[in-house]
Amino acid sequence: MARVGILGGTFDPPHNGHIGIAKAALKELMLDKVIFVPACVPPHKMKRCVASAEDRLIMLQLVINGYDKFEISRIEFDRPGPSYTVDTLTEFRQIYPRDELFLLIGADNIAEIENWYEPDRIVGLAKIAAANRPNFSSNGAYADIVIPFTMPPADISSTAIRQRIKAELSITDLVPPGVESYILEHRLYKSK
User: Fold this and answer.
1) Gap between the terminal Cα atoms of the chain
2) Of 112, 110, 13, nearest in space to 53 by CA
3) Backbone angles phi, psi at 90, to 5 degrees
């Protein structure tokens, strides 16, 4: 039986914090692999412009290059409509029927689980594992079943990275070099 971590997100753009979560989960939860699942149409961000799905997929591939226990799934790209966690986990449960699935989240998302679409089904399909975040205590209806794991402090967000790009500030220490080059070359996140 394998232990499989699933790390979903918009990855707009993917950054060093995403790698930090995946590496920490791999080690602390003794996972066999971590699957990154970029959302094609994130339901909570449907009205906000983001980099194209393909740009985000390419940047994510640049992030995981060199990590043999990391892979990317296009599962949400191949399904029409909004990307709900419960639908993604249902598909992964079919792909990995005998394996342990771990949905990897940041501790700041624990209180939000109860607001997700069909949260009871989500916690039945996978164990929820949360990376510690600086100055954050977990709470919420599902907090007692969440498996905590520790990652090195990383106060990085995709929103802050996009803001830095718009302000023409450096993002060198926030994203892998390949992602930075891709963003600059394709002029992503610049004001129109």
Assistant:
1) 49
2) 13
3) -60, -45
CA dihedral 93, 10, 28, 75 (to 10 degrees): 20
φ, ψ of residue 18 in degrees (nearest 5) = -65, -45
**pLDDT tens readout for residues 11-65:** 999 999 999 999 999 999 999 999 999 987 666 554 555 788 899 999 999 999 9
Cα–Cα distance measured from residue 77 to residue 37, given in angstroms and rounded to the nearest whole number? 9
Which domains can be identified in the chain, with CATH numbers? 3-155 (3.40.50.620)
Look at the pTM and tell me if it is higher than 0.85.
yes
DSSP, residue by residue, 15-38: -HHHHHHHHHHHHHTT-SEEEEEE
